[in-house]
Write a structure and sequence with these properties.
Number of strands of chain B: 55
Distance between the termini of chain B: 45 Å
Largest sheet of chain A: 2 strands, antiparallel
Helix content of chain B: under 10%
Number of strands of chain A: 12
Structural class of chain A: mainly alpha
Shape of chain A: globular
Strand order of the largest sheet of chain A: 1-5
Largest sheet of chain B: 22 strands, antiparallel, barrel
Radius of gyration of chain B: 33 Å
Oligomer: heterodimer
Number of helices of chain B: 11
Structural class of chain B: mainly beta
Strand content of chain B: over 45%
Radius of gyration of chain A: 34 Å
Helix content of chain A: 25-40%
């Protein structure tokens, strides 16, 4: 018995004897000693079984996420970081609390009182109540860009060297750094146009560093954008059609040129060019001209104005006017939000203003409606024919009373199907047409959807940017020097006005710089309506106070004669304070980092 | 012999074998006894009596002799017993209510006195101590008190039963409304997944939800409150522990208890919404206030009022349409229990049935869509002594339940309540009759209010939710007196599994909007238009398993107790491993615990406990995975000191003090490393191909640790004048290592989520008072009880971001302290607005709330928020009172329970915030501001806009959430013994019982405990009968 139980364990037998003697006091015999052993075994088992697995028991973990080294070892994952960098691109499809930013400019009024967009208009936004605050979001995007440039830009993916597609993959990969630098530059323009002077961050910050960064001046940011764009222009392809993967939608040479042109135009504008330094306008014109001369109508013709102005924006993938767009999945949200009440699923959102409608000139004379001899007929304000016809872009952009939408003529007279007092009917007398895809079914039973691409850069903007910069630098009909010697401001704007299907009369000759500026600003409002330009143009031109009265129209129909009377009305008087030329930086940031400076007035 | 012994512990597989073994073993035992004893002492019969402190006899107490297992007798109705044994053996007496006493047999007559202090109290971690020697702060309640509640979830029977235990009712169906439970308030904060305020609930020593049990099977509930009691729970004890003990077989012979109860339930309170005329008038008033035209013309208002156009100008009381006045409950249970010399068993079968409050549930092709449930549950607790030193406990419990509600598996009963509450009475008729074609009958509905409540209830099919739950545990206890006298080893395993499957049979219906066409000048109805939305679909079927839970616990412990002289030592060494696995990722939790406790008593006057635990968790990273938690406690029983002997005031007086640590590990999994995580997608190529995006996730949180609560407690337990029991506790806790977000400390230009930090600190202090008076005078018995708990917590560190004014700081305030603007009236007119500080939330008009400019900067903004009232999470004061009397079998019992020092935010659109986002308006808004009522108005003007100014958190909406509720009242009658025995029964009781009958509070429109849009809480009226065979 001893042999079996103890010798193997190497314990001394004395211990066993002692052990044995203990129960023997009570008269246990041998069999009870064995009993003791089995008890001991039981004790040990009870405590040891769990102990044995306890070493690893708590290592249990269901984490499935990639750590740094593993993440950067694989092309697809590095590519996904670049994809992430794209995802911060903005659009204005009802992005601000369900409304378009247009409704915070004199282009539009949103029908929903509850939307935060109204806080721009009633002056209740502040550093404590920020609206469209992209500060955090853009710096998140910038961090992804910086992370890629630091850790993902110079990899060779040796593991996959002998894969058949290695060469093709690397052809795409070598472009990534320039795409990312373009995106980062773009995000800095998004920040600078909102906040003015912002910190320029090109490294991966630690927590401590992030609390101590200092702002760079607006001009320094634009200068950074300009040089980054130069790099991107030098390396990015004109198109991705012919590259492996055919991944159109990525940043191109044209996109980088357009970004540079826009950034320099903003820098030359009155808000940031208080001394009206002509050289800034020349730089802006030169940047725009570079695109016109290489890829535009004076170059290889990659980009040209398309004839179908209204549809150009919704069939973008094959549009030759489109330079760069924000892409998204197929949806119908924008249509649901902006279709007029009275249509299935429609609940109204953006209501174009009379201010915008009045900006459309007369087709025959090219004059504004309030100019003598323009041919405007107040009783037939939306005429499309004859001497009272309006700019064709009006009918392509805005739905007014009588417009046919989904084979149904809109009734915007009081008591009509799409008019007050129907709840949520338009507040201005107009509905949005631009960007709305008429073909999408909003019937909840059989809903449809389609891709919506937000225009970030298109050729029309470049021509208008060029015209504006040239006018400010040289005047309406004066050529500059060097690359600016063969296209005047007037030529550029006339080129866009003469697009097939629009064919508005040319700007008159002999205009003063100031008259040209006024007319060009009107042209820009019309051509780029609802493309998220007006809000920013108001700011960089510093014309805020003139945009506070938001006008609309009431339509009444005489039931007997069916004659409609148009009664102008003021829909809203908005609050304007000059501090609104820039966004406030949210107060919490200023508390954390005392190096930051709040914008004036906030 | 040897062989048999060897196999005996491992291979007790068949009954036959066990019997064979037992016989041989007992034979052996007797043989050994004979050998071991120097001379065989004389066996003789001893007689004795068992009485309580007041000299009342205790019937049915179990009397055994420790050395002679198998000899059991019970006391008779006079408390008398006779037992065969020998002098110097240890006599053990255990009453049915778990009081225990052991004494050495000396004379022939044995008088045993068992007092309240002899009650064995489970103090957690498989330890039991007599009440009189406990050194920690433990509150408890027993079945006879709990059984006076008619509830499905036993947690709802605990209101005001134990000092320090805060139970807050939640809305929801009766079978699905787990109340919120706190022990000594709250002392940790955070948001969402990073805060764990849950208390640990242990059923028979294993973690289990209390809702898995039925009221009938619960024997007692104890609450562990201080470190002395909680240190042994290691990383899981800091929020307090609730111990539930289920019933064990007791008593001579088989006793069978049958209980049947029928109840009627009724919504506790429902808000009153305006009728369509008043609604339309209110909308007009709101638009007028907004500076807009009236929405409804006078002829239209007249049509609402007259009801002459019920389809175009309806007036529907949706509460009447959607809810019925009463629901029903049935409860039936039967239990069997018995104790024999070697086996104790308790078996319960329980059936609950409940029919909800929805109205139109029978409008379908044969099926009923009522909100209802039925649940069958069972329990068998089995204990048997396989030898006289070996005890096996096998508990099996489980339930099979089914609940049903209308609609698909994505909807809930709260969606229906939302539709009922927030559809204005004027919105649409229940059914539309198209005037042109009376054959069509569609549900009414509009694009603004697409959810017709009657359609949601009756025409969207239904979802069945089946629940299966099994809880098993198995324990083997072996006395090791042969190895060392007083040594016991125990090993056990529990395996619990529950899952819920959902089977939904749902469909949708179309709905129709009728709009009148009015003559623009006369406002006469000239025509109507119809617009159809939605579609009628066939029933679609969908089955899923949304919840699955599996828990495995292994436990082993070694107990050692020894008495020498007037010293007493009890100790335990415990090891436990547990795993909880639930559906989904990062939902598996593992814990290891090694703990030890030494309890020492001297002269029945001085007691001390030392507890140590070393605890580990899988949630934390390797370097901070384990924690060490010690606790020390003392008790001094003054009443046993000579100087208090013979005093007439104190029957019993004990002082307690404890200090120690305990932990809380429930932080988020995997935050010690910074991963790359999926982010937004983007789209490339002409086909717009989806490309997945990834980016840096949250930065690594390090160092990371568990929460540690440092708890100090002092207490007094006393009984006075032979009728008054008193317990007072005072505590001071400090919780460190709370996981907080550092977002407020880092600039967002960092561009990535900032890490968490384990640096939050909260202090928590308070007192508890429990008072119980019970007295009998002749046939009259009466009792009076009162409990009071106060706990005040304070955030000492939360890594708060910079606040420009001290009064804005959350640090220094209670957890979830309400903050808001101080309303100082309503703007009278435009001049008033112009003369007042600028309010920046939204443009203000006369009738809007005017706020106090706290910092005097002339601008009202978020910097003008101040603390208002108290915390919105947990009341600081929780109290209750109970009263009862019994005379000749007729008795009455009532329990009141209340809270104070809690703030409630009345922010429910439709009920408290009228008309916001097309919601409804209730009578709560009757006293809204209008120019005419400006002087007396208590609420701001009506408005159709979202009006951020008025609907800020402010002193109008942040109100005192105190209430006092009648939780239960019971009238019962115990049939006279003679009558009962004539019927060959042991006892019969009939009773009438009311639950949650009324509340005194300042929130008069809804249940103060269930603000918001939830399935209503109910009052219930029950009638029942209990029979013991």
């Amino acid at each position: 018995m001893k042999q079996i139980y103890f010798d193997k364990t190497g314990r001394d037998n004395n211990k066993f004897i002692r052990f044995q003697s203990f129960p023997c006091q009570f008269g246990f015999n041998k069999s009870n000693i064995l009993h003791m052993k089995s008890i001991k075994l039981f004790v040990i088992t009870v405590f040891m079984i769990p102990m044995l697995w306890s070493c690893n028991y708590l290592k249990y973990n269901e984490q499935d996420q990639f750590q740094h080294d593993l993440f950067f070892s694989d092309f697809d994952r590095v590519k996904s970081l670049v994809t992430d960098a794209y995802s911060y691109l903005p659009d204005d499809f009802n992005r601000i609390s369900g409304a378009m930013r247009s409704s915070a400019s004199d282009e539009a009024k949103d029908v929903w009182d509850v939307s935060d967009i109204n806080k721009f208009n009633d002056g209740s936004w502040s550093q404590l109540l920020t609206i469209d605050d992209q500060w955090s979001n853009m710096y998140s995007g910038i961090r992804s860009c910086n992370r890629f440039l630091k850790d993902g830009a110079l990899l060779t993916f040796d593991d996959t060297k002998y894969n058949l597609n290695y060469a093709e993959v690397m052809k795409q990969y070598v472009l990534y750094p320039y795409e990312v630098r373009f995106l980062r530059a773009f995000y800095y323009l998004e920040l600078a146009k909102r906040y003015g002077n912002v910190p320029l961050i090109t490294t991966i910050l630690t927590q401590e560093e992030s609390n101590m960064v200092s702002p760079s001046s607006f001009d320094a940011i634009v200068s950074f954008i300009s040089t980054e764009c130069d790099e991107a222009i030098a390396h990015l392809p004109v198109s991705y059609d012919v590259l492996p993967g055919g991944e159109t939608g990525r940043a191109t040479k044209g996109a980088a040129m357009a970004l540079k042109a826009r950034a320099l135009l903003y820098a030359a504008s009155p808000l940031h060019n208080t001394t009206n330094d002509k050289s800034k306008w020349i730089a802006a014109a030169t940047a725009a001209k570079m695109l016109i001369d290489t890829l535009g109508h004076l170059g290889n013709g990659t980009y040209i104005p398309l004839p179908d102005y209204s549809n150009a924006v919704n069939t973008i993938t094959d549009s030759r006017e489109m330079i760069f767009e924000k892409r998204a999945d197929a949806t119908r949200d924008f249509e649901l939000a902006n279709t007029a009440v009275g249509f299935i699923g429609g609940r109204t959102g953006t209501c174009p203003t009379q201010n915008l409608v009045d900006s459309y000139e007369m087709k025959a004379t090219g004059l504004a409606i309030n100019e003598a001899g323009s041919g405007y007929d107040p009783a037939n304000p939306y005429s499309t024919e004859g001497s009272s016809a309006r700019d064709p872009r009006l009918a392509m952009t805005i739905l007014y009373n009588g417009s046919v939408w989904k084979s149904q003529a809109l009734e915007i007279w009081h008591g009509g199907l799409n008019a007050p007092p129907v709840p949520n009917a338009t507040k201005t007398g107009y509905y949005l047409k631009k960007f709305l895809n008429e073909g999408i079914s909003l019937d909840p039973v059989n809903p449809g959807s389609a891709n919506h691409y937000w225009i970030i850069f298109r050729y029309g903007e470049i021509l208008l940017n060029y015209a504006e910069a040239m006018n400010e630098a040289y005047g309406p009909e004066v050529n500059g020097t060097g690359p600016l010697s063969n296209l005047t401001a007037r030529d550029a704007v006339d080129y866009i006005r003469s697009r097939p299907g629009v064919e508005m009369p040319d700007f008159p000759t002999g205009m003063t710089q100031s008259d040209f500026r006024t007319k060009l600003q009107r042209e820009r409002m019309v051509e780029l309506a609802f493309e998220d330009h007006r809000f920013w143009d108001i700011r960089r031109w510093k014309i805020g106070p003139s945009t506070t009265t938001i006008r609309g129209v009431d339509l009444t129909m005489n039931q007997a004669t069916m004659v409609i009377t148009y009664t102008p009305k003021v829909v809203e008087t908005r609050v304007w304070e000059d501090k609104m030329y820039l966004y406030p930086i949210m107060q919490s940031e200023l508390f954390i980092n005392t190096n930051l400076v709040q914008n004036p007035g906030w | 012999m040897v062989k048999i012994n060897c196999t005996s512990y491992n291979n007790l597989k068949t009954k036959k074998m066990r019997n064979k073994y037992s016989k041989k073993y007992i034979y052996l035992w007797f043989l050994l006894l004979m050998l071991s004893l120097p001379g065989l002492a004389q066996q003789k019969v001893f007689t004795g009596s068992v009485n309580d402190n007041n000299g009342r006899p205790i019937a049915n107490a179990l009397v055994t002799i420790k050395e002679l297992s198998g000899t059991i007798v019970f006391t008779d109705n006079e408390g008398k017993f006779s037992i065969t044994g020998e002098t110097d053996q240890i006599l053990e007496v255990k009453t049915r209510d778990n009081r225990y006493k052991s004494l050495r047999i000396t004379g022939d007559q044995i008088a045993v006195t068992i007092g309240d202090n002899d009650e064995l109290i489970s103090i957690g971690n498989r330890m039991e101590l007599r009440k009189g020697e406990i050194t920690s702060a433990i509150g408890f309640t027993k079945a006879d008190e709990l059984s006076k509640s008619s509830v499905m979830n036993p947690a709802n029977a605990l209101y005001g039963k134990i000092p320090g235990l805060t139970i807050l009712q939640n809305g929801g169906t009766n079978w699905n409304n787990d109340p919120t439970m706190f022990i000594r308030g709250v002392e940790t904060f955070g948001s969402g997944a990073i805060v764990n305020t849950n208390i640990l609930v242990m059923v028979d020593g294993f973690e289990r939800p209390i809702s898995s049990l039925s009221m009938a099977e619960i024997e007692s509930v104890a609450v562990l409150k201080d470190a002395a009691a909680l240190a042994m729970y290691g990383m899981r004890g800091a929020n307090g522990v609730l111990l539930v003990t289920t019933k064990r077989g007791t008593g001579t012979g088989l006793s069978v208890d049958v209980n049947y109860e029928r109840g009627v339930t009724k919504a506790f309170r429902l808000p009153n919404f305006l009728n369509s005329y008043n609604y339309a008038t209110a909308v007009n008033q709101a638009r007028l206030n907004d500076g807009l035209d009236a929405r409804y013309s006078q002829p239209e208002l007249n049509r609402f009022q007259s009801g002459n156009s019920p389809f175009l100008y309806p007036n529907v009381n949706w509460i009447d349409q959607g809810l019925r006045d009463y629901g029903f409950t049935d409860k039936f249970n039967v239990s069997f229990q018995q104790q024999t010399s070697s086996v104790r068993y308790y078996t319960l079968l329980n059936f609950d049935n409940e029919q909800g409050l929805l109205g139109p549930v029978k409008l379908n092709q044969g099926y009923d869509t009522q909100v209802k449930s039925h649940n069958f549950s069972f329990r068998t607790n089995l204990e048997f002594d396989i030898t006289n030193t070996t005890k096996v406990t096998a508990n099996v419990a489980g339930s099979l339940g089914e609940a049903q509600r209308p609609g698909s598996s994505y909807s809930s009963e709260n969606d229906i309540i939302s539709a009922i509450y927030n559809t204005p009475s004027s919105a649409f008729p229940v059914w539309t009759h198209n005037p042109e074609n009376r054959l069509t009958k569609n549900f009414g509905g509009t694009s603004t209010w697409p959810n017709n409540p009657v359609a949601l209830i009756s025409a969207n099919g239904f979802t069945l939710e089946g629940k299966r739950e099994v809880m098993t545990d198995f324990l083997l206890e072996q006395q090791l007196d042969k190895l060392l006298s007083g040594l016991t080893i125990e090993a056990g395993v529990s395996f619990d599994r529950s899952f819920i499957y959902q089977d939904s049979k749902s469909k949708t219906v179309l709905y129709e909007t009728l709009s009148p066409v009015l003559d623009p000048t006369t406002h006469d109805i000239v025509d109507s238009t119809s617009q159809i939305y939605g579609s009628n679909t066939a029933l679609s079927f969908n089955t899923s398993v949304p919840t699955f839970r599996r828990r495995i616990t292994l436990v082993g412990n070694l107990k050692y107790s020894k008495e020498w002289g007037d010293n007493e030592l009890k100790s335990i060494l415990l090891f436990q491993s547990e795993e909880l696995a639930m559906t989904g990722q990062n939902n598996t939790y593992r814990h290891l615990l090694t703990a030890a406790n030494v309890h020492y008593g001297k002269s029945d006057k001085y007691f001390a406990d030392l507890s140590l635990s070393y605890s580990g968790t899988n949630i934390l990273p390797k370097n901070s995975r384990y924690g060490f938690f010690p606790a020390l406690s003392f008790a001094w029983k003054l009443s046993n000191e000579d100087f208090l002997k013979g005093n007439t005031i104190f029957d019993d007086l004990k002082l307690r003090a404890s200090w120690g640590m305990t932990g809380n590990d429930q932080v988020i999994q995997n935050i010690a490393v910074s991963p790359y995580v999926g982010s937004s997608n983007y789209y490339f190529s002409t086909n717009n191909t989806t490309n997945w995006g990834m980016r840096e996730g949250r930065l690594a949180s390090s160092p990371l640790t568990y929460e540690t609560s440092y708890k100090t407690n002092i207490g007094i337990d006393a009984s006075l004048f032979k009728m008054l029991d008193l317990t007072i506790d005072g505590f001071y806790d400090k919780r460190k290592g709370i996981l907080v977000q550092t977002a407020g400390l880092e600039s967002v230009v960092l561009g990535v989520l900032t890490p968490y930090s384990s640096t939050g600190i909260v202090s928590n202090k308070g007192i508890e008072l429990g008072l119980n008076l019970h007295k009998s005078t002749g046939d009259l018995l009466y009792h009076l009880g009162g409990q009071f708990s106060y706990a005040h917590n304070k955030i000492l560190n939360m890594e708060e971001s910079y606040q420009p004014y001290d009064y804005l700081k959350r640090t220094g305030q209670s957890i979830n302290q309400a903050f808001g603007l101080e309303a100082i009236g309503f703007f009278a007119n435009d001049a008033d607005i112009a003369a007042s500080p600028k309010q920046t939330f939204s443009p203000v008009r006369p009738g809007d709330v005017k706020y106090k400019d706290q910092n005097g900067d002339g601008i009202i903004n978020a910097f003008d928020q101040v603390p208002i009232g108290h915390s919105t999470q947990c009341p600081e004061i929780y109290y209750s009172g109970s009263i009862g009397a019994e005379f000749k079998g007729v008795g009455i019992d009532a329990v009141f329970q209340g809270i104070s020092n809690k703030t409630t935010y009345l922010n429910t659109p439709g009920i408290f915030w009228p008309l916001v986002s097309n919601t409804n308006i209730s009578t709560y808004s009757d006293n809204a501001w209008t120019p005419a009522t400006a002087a007396t108005a208590t609420l701001p003007r009506l408005t159709m806009s979202s009006n951020a100014n008025n609907y800020q958190p402010n002193s109008i909406w942040l109100v005192d959430g105190s209430y006092l509720k009648l939780r239960s009242v019971e009238l019962y009658y115990n049939l006279p013994g003679k009558l009962v025995s004539k019927m060959k029964l042991q006892a019969v009781m009939v009773y009438l019982r009311g639950m949650n009958l009324f509340s005194i509070d300042k929130i008069k429109y809804v249940d103060p405990e269930a603000i918001g849009i939830v399935y209503p809480t109910v009052s219930s009226y029950n009638v029942g009968i209990q029979i013991r065979f």
